Fold this sequence. Notes:
Arc Repressor Mutant, subunit A, 2 domains, two-stranded antiparallel ribbon, 10 strands, elongated, Class_I_gatase-like, transcription regulation
Amino acid sequence: MTHVVFFLVPGVHVLDLAGPAQVFSTAAEFGHPYTLAYVAEQPQIPTAQGVPLVAALDWPELGPDDLIVVPGWRARTLAESPAVADASLRVLRDHHAGGGTVASVCAGAEVLGRAGLLDGRRCTTHHDVQDELALRHPRATVVRDVLFTADDRVITSAGIASGIDLALHLVATRHGPAAAARVARDMVVYARRNGHAQQSSAMFRHRSHLDDTVHRAQDIIDADFDRPLPLSALASAVGVSERTLTRLFGRATGLTPLRYQQTLRLERAQHLISQGTTVEAAARSVGFQDARMLRRLRTRTP
């Protein structure tokens, strides 16, 4: 069971907290082993939106697979941010030193900075306070105009709703892009990745549409992309004709169902090859009978 612990400070933004919490809660509903906890330095936390929150005062026992998230809060400047006790900062440092992951949303990066976890690492925060974060923590490298950054198990995200992107990235990293795409679809949000780079998986790139028939077809392909999937069976499974499915799929994604499946196979094979797998073994692993088709697809891809 993976603990996701949200460390709350007074004035916390509800969406900074609720967005990532919803991602991990939805992932848990789909069978991924997450349990959520909320810790603060006082039992009741006022939020920026006026909704009071109740939190535990004691931290659960944490291991390397667990995650601590610091949501942001309302303050005109980072210098005016709420005080955080040394004991809490020590928990963050010790968790990361023990192999765990720490993350922040929006102004929450300031707490990671106070804990020394931004030193020598890339990070980001809300655009209104990026310059101040850089001044307050000169050993950090503040990256502008991105949704989030990930550097040595320190994950930081930009303003407010970008916490959803951060959480989807972590779900994708741990459970694969298909799991993150399923969570995003259930939450009715776009499955996005870093703002400065192309989304690295077709399961993300081709999900930013609202056609439910195509999403259902993609769910099937995502789950079984390494197996033969005749167009007739795929169309029957989603309740339309082959011609209709091809038309809808092309309009929503710019690809045919077969080309989408091949793209997933190619990306998975490329990953395996980068990890040391031979081309032949990678080809078989993703469903090709031999390496010839994989080599042709790799040649076509820029």
